[in-house]
Design goal:
Shape: globular
Oligomer: single chain
Distance between the termini: 9 Å
Number of helices: 14
Bound molecules: flavin mononucleotide
Strand content: 15-25%
């Protein structure tokens, strides 16, 4: 097998999205198949372990990118996922012989997060219909364009964001992810401050919030409500919201990651900007895991009941992700990736 071909294939896989750009994966070429396994990159601040929902979504995204890359090269591949919670998650067996040159698929390198304001112009009906018809396994998309439905979802995001800003673990995780200096950014993971699209005063605000003790004091005078309100302003202004929903189990989540990455990539290829919002899913998961900050359980119960009604969730289904979509007003700074040598190994 061509080593360069497999290396380039792995590099496309690694362009997948992940929570705070934590890139919780490694790829290993066995000589026959590409294995995808978990990598805990910053254990001192990490909140998402190998079997967490956010990690499984990201791994599904790697799988989708790898499938797109094989398709672009006319190569067949067969996925085999491990049972239970074992590692590696699974492997992609690749059919020989491989082409001499690798053709990069157009989607994965174009897909990106845009956290800037979007134009308020409505998106074309065919673009929304295409996004709304996407399916993977038991997962589907729900597109909200009606102002009342969008506002209802925004309220739920606001409620969940309030809980998020009162959570010390999530505070440590966010501030551990931020990359301030060019040297920090050059390491290739985490959230480059320049990708956040912060408004004037935003950096000073973040600096103020960076100490948990100060954050707790600010929260006592209601800062978490103000922050949650600010966090949802762009969401309120978006012409459409796309929700990825489906079964609340391990394989369902891997499929949801595939669907999320496919829909997001196709929207970006159609010139549509995308920003994911994970806060509702995360707080609902924390409700069931018992890791919400004190006092928030009743609020998140209500949020998840209202969410099920709004999105028409059946028993055993959940919201995997919300996407804010719209035509971009400006191009954002793009996030980086870790050097391939840090995540790819080969037995060849
Ligand atoms: C599970 C998951 C949760 C995410 N949550 C958010 C979020 O709440 N807000 C946000 O702006 N981006 C979110 N993102 C986007 C990531 O921050 C982004 O994919 C990562 O920084 C890499 O940047 P890129 O998408 O431009 O390649 C999330 C992505 C994933 C896979």
């Amino acid at each position: 097998m061509s080593h360069t071909f497999i290396e380039q294939l792995a590099a496309v896989g690694a362009q997948a999205p992940s929570a705070d750009n934590c890139q919780p994966w490694t790829l290993h070429w066995t000589g026959r198949a590409l294995e995808v396994a978990y990598a805990s990159r910053h254990p001192d601040t990490n909140v998402f372990d190998a079997d967490s929902h956010a990690t499984l979504l990201a791994v599904g995204g790697v799988a989708e990118n790898l499938s797109m890359a094989l398709a672009a090269n006319g190569v067949d591949g067969a996925w085999r996922w491990s049972g239970g919670a074992s590692q590696p998650y699974g492997e992609l067996a690749v059919s020989a012989p491989l082409p001499d040159t690798f053709v990069a698929p157009s989607g994965p390198a174009r897909r990106h997060t845009n956290r800037l304001p979007y134009q308020s112009t409505a998106l074309p009906a065919d673009v929304l219909a295409h996004a709304g018809a996407a399916r993977e396994g038991g997962n589907r998309t729900v597109v909200l364009t009606e102002p009342d439905a969008r506002e209802c979802l925004v309220q739920l995001v606001r409620q969940c964001a309030q809980a998020r800003f009162c959570n010390q673990d999530l505070h440590r995780w966010l501030f551990g992810s931020l990359r301030h200096t060019p040297q920090e950014v050059a390491q290739g993971d985490g959230l480059d401050m320049n990708t956040l699209g912060l408004p004037p005063g935003g950096r000073a605000m973040l600096a103020l919030m960076s100490s948990w003790k100060r954050m707790e004091a600010l929260n006592r005078i209601g800062a978490y409500k103000l922050l949650a309100h600010t966090e949802t302003q762009l969401l309120s202004a978006a012409p459409a919201l796309v929700c990825v929903v489906g079964p609340e189990e391990r394989y369902g989540t891997l499929d949801a990651g595939r669907l999320l990455t496919r829909v997001w990539t196709e929207l970006n290829l159609a010139g549509v900007a995308v920003q994911p919002y994970y806060v509702v899913t995360d707080q609902v998961n924390r409700l069931f895991a018992g890791t919400l900050p004190a006092g928030f359980d009743p609020w998140i119960w209500i949020a998840q009941r209202d969410l099920a009604r709004l999105l028409g969730l059946a028993e055993g289904e959940m919201l995997h992700m919300i996407l804010r979509v719209g035509f971009p007003a400006r191009e954002p700074v793009r996030s980086r990736r870790l050097p391939l040598a840090q995540l790819f190994t080969s037995a060849d």
